[in-house]
Amino acid sequence: MRVAVTGAAGFLGLNVVNALLEQGDNVLAIDRVPFPDKAVESVLVDVLDEDAMTAALDGIEVVHHLVAVISLRQEDPVAEKVNVHGVGAVARASLAAGVRRMVNCGSLASFDYEKGATVDEGSARSTDPALPVYHRSKYGGEVELRKVIDAGLDAVICNPTGIYGPLDHPQRLSRMNQSLLDAALGKLPASVPSKFDMVDARDVAAGFLLAAEKGRTGHNYLIGGHRYDLFDAQVRAAELAGRRGPRIRIPLRVLETVAPLVDPVARRFGSESFAPAALENISMSPVVDRTKAGAELGYEPRATEETLRDLVAFFAASGLLRPVAVS
């Protein structure tokens, strides 16, 4: 089958392309930068260029649209444009090119939730103007997609939770993978205890492929993993590498107190770690009900321990980490 992946050179893109290749599909990698594996056909297209995207999708049966700008700012015009209008452009291009099915990468962030709440596909959506731009724009992209579904496009939406694990770019790891590498290197003496629904990137890719095959047109599917304390995950990553992980648990209220003072300085150095949305992610992570994806798609994520072991092995194989023998 001829399948296209937008955002193919990104973290999730690597995993989706790899999963498609493993099942024998003919893959077209679409991005603004070349795909790292020269054996994979690659084309450089801006998702906002609807005409170029339509041409690129000629002869494609399924397209997985993964392009997004992850921003922890309250307002970000680029994130708004790519996450909302980019989805609409790719959807219209897919319809014009005769694509059989589009799988759109949404986000857990597109659901509006309160601390400790349980989220499923019927939960409230991120329409409150007070929410960070990423939350609002990811839902806005779904709104644009549904306009094209109403016009005849067959599309489904997958909403992953907190993605981590291999495969990743060794020189530009995702935020969560970087924090686990820092712990595995013994460079993280302190951290903030906070529970997240953490999902292996390989499982997200598998969920996308299942959605392409079995998902119902216009439906959302939460592609989650297991609720786990990031502090404990960092400790375990360090243990697997033979090192000592974080020992000091920093109360969230301490971060919330210093954030207004530290955030402007951190922004100058390109860090969003103290942005309001970053603290919101730490404090407001919900319980995710992935029953629908299991029942309708046959989706089931692997155990957290397996992902952490594989991730530490990936760090070592990539030259990022030299494990220490545990006595």
Description:
This protein has 327 residues and is of the alpha/beta class. The chain is 43% helix and 17% strand. It has a domain at 2-165 and 198-225 and 286-302: 3-Layer(aba) Sandwich (Rossmann fold). The chain has helices spanning 11-22, 50-56, 77-97, 133-150, 175-184, 201-214, 230-240, 252-268, 276-283, 291-297, 304-317; strands at 2-6, 26-31, 41-44, 62-65, 101-105, 118-119, 155-160, 162-164, 190-191, 195-200, 220-223, 226-229, 248-249, 287-288. Strands 3-2-1-4-5-7-11 form a 7-stranded parallel sheet, sandwiched between helices. It is globular, with a radius of gyration of 19 Å.
Biggest sheet details: 7 strands, parallel
Low-confidence stretches: 269-274
Tell me the radius of gyration.
19 Å
Helix-and-strand structural type: alpha/beta
CATH superfamily of the domain at 2-165 and 198-225 and 286-302: NAD(P)-binding Rossmann-like Domain
CATH-derived architecture of the domain at 2-165 and 198-225 and 286-302 = 3-Layer(aba) Sandwich
Q: How many angstroms separate the termini?
A: 50 Å
Number of helices: 11
Say what oligomer this is.
single chain
Shape: globular
Mean pLDDT across the residues is 91
Order of helices and strands: EHEEHEHEEHEEHEEHEEHEHHEHH
* Main CATH class of the domain at 2-165 and 198-225 and 286-302: Alpha Beta
Instruction: Kindly identify the CATH topology of the domain at 2-165 and 198-225 and 286-302.
Output: Rossmann fold
Sheet with the most strands: spatial strand order? 3-2-1-4-5-7-11
DSSP, total strands: 14
The helicity comes to 40-55%
Strand content: 15-25%
